[in-house]
């Protein structure tokens, strides 16, 4: 096995000696006693000064908020429907397996960043592993993944506004409002400034989904169930889905953890990247617990009558309340999902120039152009595929697996392949080789199978009578 370890020096200059972590990462740029401005040299952003945006100012608590808000939001709303497809027990098992793989993948990002501080995003990883072709392939997958996620964020805002207003205007108008929010909030320059919004959004989405969870537990029956006669939930411990449906369901679970490649951007803006693992453990344990509780309880009480998104499962009143509570969280998610791909394009365009970390005219024109471009493409996607469940599973299958599973397996090989000759660690090394291969193979299978299942599901949705259509005015908050 061989990897391309170095490329043109003007693309990614490697090695801590050339571009190390901050000498004192916890300190922001400041003015010293002589009146001279102190600067911080960063491996990615270059010279960070007091007068420009501080791209290395996210603490570990802010990192927890960014991680959880990037993950918890859109994906959790589809988990009860996934359990309906797979059955309760297989659904829980599949969620835990994907959570375990994802946690290792996220951990690999932190260790790879420590070993290679010049890496900013997954395209830099692609360049190290496979040269220029790898860089462009990973870059395309990353930008497309998060741009599609931006679209799903706009779609969720439109669903929320439809629910709150009882469909006061055409859904296409609400999607356009989602675009305005994505462009405006996504243009905030640094993640440290967005972290406050992430905390608000995280609390709001958790309160909203637990409100629905409690509501479906105390109600006699879910809103979509038959309202006459004796009601008993038709939840299934085991289900027998066809291959396409099962693959699409697994893709939705992958999407629930699909923000993995964005963690490169988060660790790159941390004051102390060595605190990354601490934040990761808190984030992963917290959101997996939330996913399990929401998925099990809502599906147990609603059965096949669960809505997707799940906030609509408890009837019109609770739906309006829950969407009102969730709206700040959906806005925060859409903000982050717009910010990440725009920041990638921006950094790549201005890297190794003074405009990257200085508030020049070129800086602002480039930055706003990036956020505008990402948000407008997301708007087009959201308007063309206004089917929440189908869009979620398609994103998870086609892009989330490609950027969350396979690259991390190859990253482990890149840093550890030569350690197989070291005495005393051979057994551990062989176990990790097997694990890395498993992650690569599993990711490839999920990508191919899930894409097929998702496309089949979207086609079936379009064939249904009264189903959503491109640029539709139909109310999209009543999906079940």
Automatic annotation (TrEMBL):
Pfam families in UniProt: Aa_trans
| Assigned GO CC terms | membrane
This protein's major location comes to membrane
TM region(s), chain numbering: 137-159, 165-185, 197-218, 243-267, 279-301, 321-342, 363-385, 391-414, 435-459
Q: Name one GO molecular function term.
A: L-amino acid transmembrane transporter activity
Q: Which Gene3D superfamilies match?
A: Amino acid/polyamine transporter I
List every stretch annotated Disordered: 1-39
| Name the UniProt record assigns to this protein | Amino acid transporter transmembrane domain-containing protein
Which species is this record about?
A: Periconia digitata
């Amino acid at each position: 096995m061989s990897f391309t370890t170095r490329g043109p020096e003007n693309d990614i200059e490697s090695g801590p000696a050339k571009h190390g972590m901050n000498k004192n990462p916890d300190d922001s740029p400041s003015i010293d006693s002589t009146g001279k401005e102190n600067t911080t040299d960063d491996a990615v952003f270059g010279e960070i000064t007091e007068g420009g945006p501080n791209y290395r100012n996210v603490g570990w608590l802010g990192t927890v908020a960014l991680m959880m808000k990037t993950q918890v939001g859109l994906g959790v709303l589809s988990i009860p429907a996934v359990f309906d497809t797979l059955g309760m027990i297989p659904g829980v098992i599949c969620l835990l397996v994907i959570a375990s793989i994802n946690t290792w993948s996220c951990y690999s990002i932190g260790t790879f960043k420590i070993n290679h501080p010049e890496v900013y995003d997954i395209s830099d990883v692609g360049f190290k592993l496979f040269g220029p072709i790898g860089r462009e392939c990973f870059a395309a997958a990353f930008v497309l993944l998060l741009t599609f996620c931006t679209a799903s964020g706009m779609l969720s805002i439109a669903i929320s506004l439809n629910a709150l207003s009882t469909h006061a205007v055409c859904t296409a108008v609400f999607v356009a409002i989602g675009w305005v929010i994505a462009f405006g909030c996504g243009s905030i320059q640094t993640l440290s400034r967005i972290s406050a919004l992430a905390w608000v959004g995280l609390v709001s989405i958790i309160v909203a989904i637990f409100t629905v969870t409690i509501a479906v537990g105390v109600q006699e029956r879910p809103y979509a169930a038959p309202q006459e006669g004796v009601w008993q939930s038709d939840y299934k411990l085991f289900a027998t889905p066809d291959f396409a449906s099962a693959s699409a369901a697994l893709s939705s679970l992958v999407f629930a953890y699909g923000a993995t490649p964005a963690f490169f951007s988060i660790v790159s803006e941390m004051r102390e990247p060595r605190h990354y693992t601490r934040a990761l453990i808190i984030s992963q344990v917290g959101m997996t617990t939330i996913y399990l509780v929401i998925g099990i309880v809502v599906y147990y009480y609603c059965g096949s009558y669960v809505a997707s998104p799940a906030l609509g499962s408890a009837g019109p009143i609770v739906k309006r309340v829950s969407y009102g509570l969730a709206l700040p969280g959906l806005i925060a998610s859409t903000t982050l999902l717009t910010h990440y791909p725009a920041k990638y394009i921006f950094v790549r365009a201005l890297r190794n120039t003074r405009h990257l970390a200085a508030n020049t005219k070129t800086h602002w024109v480039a930055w706003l152009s990036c956020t505008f471009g990402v948000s407008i493409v997301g708007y087009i996607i959201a308007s063309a595929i206004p089917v929440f469940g189908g869009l979620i599973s398609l994103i998870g299958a086609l892009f989330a697996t490609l950027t969350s599973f396979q690259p991390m397996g190859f990253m482990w090989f890149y840093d550890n392949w030569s350690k197989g000759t070291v005495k005393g660690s051979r057994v551990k090394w062989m176990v990790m080789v097997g694990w890395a291969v498993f992650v690569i193979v599993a990711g490839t299978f999920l990508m191919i199978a899930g894409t097929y299942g998702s496309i089949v599901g979207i086609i079936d949705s379009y064939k249904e009578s009264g189903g959503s259509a491109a640029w539709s005015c139909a109310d999209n908050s009543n999906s079940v």
